[in-house]
Every structure is written in C-alpha cells, then in structure tokens.
User: Fold these one by one.
Assistant:
Number 1:
Amino acid sequence: MKTKRLVRLSLLTAISLVIFVVETRIPSLVPIPGVKLGLANIITVVAVYLCRPWEAALMLTVRIILGSIFCGTPLSFLYSIAGGALCLSASIASKSVIPETRMWLTSIIGAIFHNLGQILAAALILRTASVFVYLPVLMITGSIAGLFCGFCAQLIVKRIHTL
Amino acid sequence: MNKTAFRLILAAVVIVIAASALFVAVGLMKKPGSRVVILSDGEVIETIDLLSSPDREFVIETELGSNTIRIKDGRISVIDADCPDRTCVSMGELSSELTPIVCLPHRLIIRFIGD
C-alpha cells in the first residue's frame, strides 16, 4: 500500500512538472505579470482530492523547487512558493466542504489565493503597496483560469476512479 | 456534503469576483491622468508629466539590471530590458491605472498617479 501511494505521488509530481515546463514555453496571451493559465495546478487540485494533505503539499513543494531549477529564477521561486502555499492551504480547507463533483469551485478558490500570495510576495520584494492595484485584474483572470483547470481536474479524477 | 457551507463559499467567491469586476470596470472607464511615477526598489526615482515631457529615451540602471524607457507622443513604455522574462517590454505602453508596468526582476514600477 505504501509503495502504491509513493508511486502515485511521484507520477503526479512528474506530470505536473512536465505541464509546468511546457507551459513556460507558451507565450502568454495577456502580457500582465502573474496572468497565466497555471495548467500545472490541475494536478495540484487532483492531488488535493486524491491524496492526503501532507502528500499534496509534498508534491507541490517538489514541483515548485524542480520547476524553478529547470526554468525559473530564484525570484520566480519566491513568487511560486508564496502563491503555492496560500493556494494549497485554501484548497485543502475548501476540500472538506466542497464535494468532488464541484471541484471547479475549489480550483477557483485556489487560483484566487494563489494570486493573492503572489501579490503579497511582489509587494514585499518590490517594497511598495502599489502592486495591489493589480489585485482586481488578477482575481478575474485567476478565476477564469481556475475554473478551466478545475473542470480539467474534475474530468481526471472521474476517470481515475473508474480505473 | 454540507450544503450551507458550500453555498456560503460559493457566495463569497461570487462576491469577490463581482467586486473585482466592478473595480476593473470603474478603472477602465476612468481616464488616467498624465502624471507618471517611476519607482525603483520602492523609491520614487522620477516623476514625469507626460503631457509636457519631450520625446526621449533613457536607461534606468541598477545593480539588478537595466531597463530602457521611451517617452513618445505623451506615452511611456519600456522598450528594452536585460531580464529573462521581458514582461515589462511586452506590456507595451502604460495605459491604465489598473495595470502599472512592472519589471519584477529589476524591482521597477511605472504607474500613473492621481493629480
């Protein structure tokens, strides 16, 4: 049983890392810092629902560290880890209330908190509160991206159950 | 499934999105002023009135890297940067109070300020 969980977790980590690396190669449609689809978070949401909370946290941490090494900077690591930590905490908290059939809502909440974490990190690093004007724009783009990723995650989880 | 809790969360998310949409709509309708401020590492390094400023290009250089800024026809943009992502360059001209030009790696912000 332990090996099975380990393999599943490693697989999820590898998949989300590949998605993450491939997504950095896709030019952003909206040239606003912080706006992106965040396709790797599909796997984060899947992990939140299929694995234990600490397992999901482990997966996300490994993905962020490796992702930053492969195609990031020390600074982008800070933004990712700040966004990821808030996103994961919010998703895990929402999971207890939101059933699997409504995973898109968990994903939207995760996306909103992810952007919030990034803005907080940016405000600390840039030493100015003026980045908070981005918040409304990011909330909307984040919700759209989160909704999309949430539906993808929902499809995946449905299929994994039928395996 | 706890229906009340689910509905509360859904309502909270809808309110957040609606409030953001309202902010964005108001921000887009508001015509930005002409005064622009350039912040580097949280400090104001230059305040420019775009209406009275002549067309020019200048380089802002810090130990983190350099950004080339262009002012042309009363509009300001970053035309070159030696950072890896160059998001500030692709953002184009500064057009709204809602979306300042930000160069995260160089800790540079260009934004409109109220009069």
Number 2:
Amino acid sequence: MVSIGVWINAFLTLCILSFLYKDNPFFRFAESLFAGMSLGYYIGLANQQTLMPNLFMPLFRDFSGSVVLLIPMALGILLYFRYIPRIAWMARLALAVYIGYYIGVMFLQKLHGEVLPQSRDTILQLRGIAGIDVLWNAVFIAGVISVLLYFYFSAEHKGVLGKVSRVGIWFLMISFGASFGYTIMARISLLMGRFSFLVNDWIRPLMGAS
Amino acid sequence: MNARKLLYVDRRVIYLLVAIGALVPIIRPIGLPTVPTKPVQQLFNKIESLGPDDTVIISFDYGPSSEPELNPMAQSILRHCFQRRVKVLVMALFPLGGVNMAIDQLQAVADEFDDINYGVDFVNLGYKDGAQAAMKRMDISIESLFPADVNGDPTKDMPIMAHARNYDDIAVVISLATGIIGEYWVNLVNAQFGVPVAVGCTAVSAPKYYAYLRAGQMMSLLGGLKGGSEYEKLLVDKYEFARELYEQPEIKITSAMAGMDVQSIVHVIIIVFIIFGNTMYFIMKRQEKAR
C-alpha cells in the first residue's frame, strides 16, 4: 500500500523533473510550493528551537536572572521598525550591533582560520625530503605563485609575467576541471536520490514488488 | 555538415541517456568495488581510537536537498560511534531541514542498537540559529546554548551533558555540511579552540575543503557520495554487524556503496559525451579550415 505522502512526494518530484523537458505550470507550482514551505518551516523552526528555549522560557521561569536577555530581544524587535516609516531609522541601531558583532567575529575567523594557516601551508621545503614529495611541493609552489601572478593586474601580462601567468591559467583550468567533476558527482547523487525514491518507494510497492 | 548536426544534438537526448544510466543500476545493482582513501580512513581510525568515555559532536548542517549524498554518511558514522559506545551529541546549525535530518537519521540508527540510551549515550540537541555565535558559545558552555533538547526537555539533568561541558570534552566535531557551516567549524572552531574537525560534505563543495585538509586544519574529509561509500566499506570490512546490516535489501538500496554504481555509469556517459563533443569540435574546425 502506497501512502498518500509518497504519492504527493512522487507527484512533486515529477513536477520538478518536468522542467528538463521545458518550463511548465507544474514545475512552477512545485517551485512556489517549495519556496513558501521553506519560509514557513524556517519561521517555525527559529521560534521553536531558538526563541522559545533561549529567550522566552528563561524569561518566564526566572525573569530577574535572565533580564540581560531583554537586550537581544529589544534588538530583534527593533529590526521590524523598518516597516513603520516614521521610526524606520531605529532599525539601523540593531543592524549596527549585528554588523559590528559579525565583522569582529569574521575578522578573527578569516585571519586565524584562513589567511595565516593557508599562508603557512604554502611555505614548503624542497630539500631534506624524499622522492615524490619534492615534486609535489615544487608543483604546489609553482601553482600558488603562477596563479597569484595571473591575478596581478598592475602590470601588462607580457614577457616573463605573461608566461608565468599563462602557467597560472593552466593550474586554474585543472582546478576548474576537478570542481566540475565533483559538481557532476553531486548532481548525479541528487538525481539518484529522486530516482531511487521513485523506483523503490513508489513504483515497486505499486507493482507489488518488494 | 554531419559533424555539425551531431554536435548540436538536442540536450534532452543527453538527459534521456543519463536517466537510463541512472535507472539501470538502481533496478539491477552491479556492485562495483569501493576503495577507501586516506582522508576517510583518518576519521575511521579516530572513531576506532575512542571509547565510552569520549564524546563527539555530529552536526547536521544539511537539508533535504543533500539527503542522497549525506544521509548514508550520517548513518555509517552514527553506527560506528554507537558500536564503539562513543557518546554522541547531535545538533543542527543549518536552518532548512538540518534538524529533521538529525531526527530521522538518529532515530533510524539508534533503533538498531539495544543497549544505548537517550540522554546517556546520545542526545539530539536540536537546531540553533546564528552559526558562528552558537559555535563560540559552546566553548564556554554547551548546556547554556542548548538548555533544552530537540523535544524541549531540559538538558541539565541528562547524564551525557556531564561528559560535554564545552569543547575541552569533545574528541572530534563531525560536520555533515551542505553549505558554509562546515567551513565555520574548520576556520573558527578548529582555528580558535583547537578542536579536531572532520567534514563530510556534498561533492560540489569538496574541492574547497581540500585546502583546509592539506593545511592540517581538518583531520578528515569525506567528499560526497564517494566519501560515504568509503566509510561504509571500512565499517563493513571491520564489523560483522555492519556486514549483515548492509546486506539487508532496504539498507543496501539506499547505501552509498550501491549509489556508486550509478555514479560510475553516469560518469562514463558524460565522459563519452565530453570526448565526443571535443572530437566533433576539432573535426568541424578542420572542415572550416579546408573550406
């Protein structure tokens, strides 16, 4: 017995896949439904999983001990003032706090988590290591330098700079090829997921097969 | 002229061939071999080295759109942790469906083990908004960020929370990620708090994670369905229960190892089209030159 949920799931899957033939009202219906449901889901989730346990429940249980929570609550409410033209400017106060916080977080995050460790990783030794590692380190260093020079636009790309940046293009092309291969793998996985559902959860039970 | 006609073949013909290539192995699985790679082996070895006194975080940072790629990975990692009796904190920092992925996968796998208990061996802490802010808070106190679990029950009374006060108690964070949240675990939590991080990501985002892996900022990377299939293979080779489990038809058909049949066949089709397109391009170029 195929449940109504599986039928709805199969119908919406076919609606989305129908776009491969051409754009049509079924596809647009499924697309709009998905967008609307996603928004509704997110609002419900944020309320149930974040606002209730981290804001409202502590305030209800122990107001004096949780009074500091009124500050982020007020900032959150301020954001909605943008819909009242007369006091819309007040929303900027909350935005300023959010932007300031996340700039601070991101600045350290990028510096400690990307710039420094990634720069450190490009400082590689070519002596005192064995065999194939020398070759890989040389390729790595050549790749970093040539790609960086390709993105150096303060001088015309001719002569030595032109030749090195040409090597950089080759490195970039190889990396784009690897990314393309991974992208195909990801998209095929999605297709496989839908086909597997259609075959194993919908068609096979309909035909009475296990 | 014929070459030109072949080159401009209707794209729907390619779609049809890809669809056939994907459907055939789903209906009749082939069982192509899977060979584990070093980045996947590293996470497997790490979990193997852990025991009942250790705690791991598994963060479900993906939604339904990445389900076919990341569900098999989530299941095999959870099975491995539960088999080793490692304590598991499950959470979700991805808004669109992460918490539902966590609920479904945790329920499916926990039911396979008789002697593990909710709140003692594992807990689902639910979803929390704010990604980086949530990650930073966990360095002070995990319980203060998650005062209640996914069902709204207080976490302070749960025995597992005594083993998970903050990052100092966490042996490894495993982020199953579809977007940028996996990166945050690496460039924020690993960089600033020194917690080992492994990422199981969708294939499309795997290339960017290799830079972190190479720089030693991640201890392991499971890239897409292939990464998931490699982890399953390691689990099946090591444990008898896993071998029997992955032989069950309802688990076998949704496993990453079975999915790699589809991947291999469709990749061959696409490679053939790429070679065909390029050959036709050069033939046409030669014809135009001759004219």
